[in-house]
Amino acid sequence: MSPDPAASPVAAPPRRARRSCLAVPASNPRFVEKAQTLPSDHFFLDLEDACAPPVKEDARHAAVTALNEGDWADRTRTVRINDWTTHWAYRDVITVVEGAGEHLDCLILPKVSDPRQVTALDMLLTQIEKGLGLRVGGIGIEAQIEDARGLVAVDAIAAASPRLETLVYGPADLMASVNMKSLVVGEQPPGYPADAYHYILMRILMAARAHDLQPIDGPYLAVRDTERFRAAAGRTAALGFDGKWVLHPAQIDAANEIYSPSQEDFDHAELILDAYAHHTSVAGGAKGSVMLGDEMIDEASRKMALVVSGKGRAAGLRRTSRFEPPAAG
């Protein structure tokens, strides 16, 4: 069942910076305080796996306090609630949104295996926003794909709500779901000579891009092995993912670097955009394809350059070169 458009008039989701998405146990005051000093693009106060059952209720209220009183600067502010199969989920949503809705950008919904789970969260958020006088649709949803059912249904999940902003890969639960022969999250299972995760990653990536969502890679649990973290992040960045969950401060700088274009690529993308705009204009000769140095550029080049330029600007890069139109003659 799709959300009623009249009941949920949500604009296209914003394109937020999510190179590094920091997991913060909402039940740990020391970690919450430390997280406010770290340079992650995005953070989530976790009410799910990071909180043991006896402290989940207190963690909700701690998340509200952290959102309302914390100094989070301009980072994307999110909370991961418990999944719909638990008895905690609905109260997580009500407590957090009623208590701190004005300081909340998104809710992360874990273990999404059916689009109706996203629809249900959309409807509950709409009711709370209307009741509080908040802008309907102002709080986004991030859907975490963590099992075989979710992966098979990922296209329907990606289309389930205009609130959706991201699809997040949940590696540990998904590996368990398919009985993968490995106990090390994110590492290749023994006995398989190729990349065991390529299909999973591409499936999530295609669904996200087809619905204008951001694909986000999940965590790498060997938190002090920065080199292996960089290798895992580099693989999904190369495919086109926008960012990765981070579990330790040492992973943040690596993620911010890996999911940002290099200065050279950013400058080159900006030159392509300027050159294409000039040469396709009447003043530039209204040409469909032209040369930029030794490189032919056309409309496809412009689209590729827009991706790199957008990611560079979101990362705070500034160009260091300038396009000079060729002299008339």
Task: Put the structure in a nutshell.
Helices cover 42% and strands 14% of the residues. It is α/β, with parallel strands linked by helices and 329 residues long. The longest helix is centred in the middle third of the chain and has 18 residues, at 115-132.
Protein described:
The protein has helices at residues 29-35, 56-69, 89-100, 115-132, 148-152, 154-158, 171-177, 198-210, 226-239, 249-258, 263-280, 299-314; strands at residues 20-25, 42-46, 76-80, 106-109, 140-145, 164-169, 214-217, 243-246, 290-292, 295-297. The protein is of the alpha/beta class and 329 residues long. 42% of the residues lie in helices and 14% in strands. The relative contact order is 0.11. The strands form two sheets. Strands 1-2-3-4-5-6-7-8 form an eight-stranded parallel barrel, surrounded by six helices. The protein has a two-stranded antiparallel sheet with strand order 9-10. The radius of gyration is 21 Å and the shape is globular. The chain is built from twelve helices and ten strands.
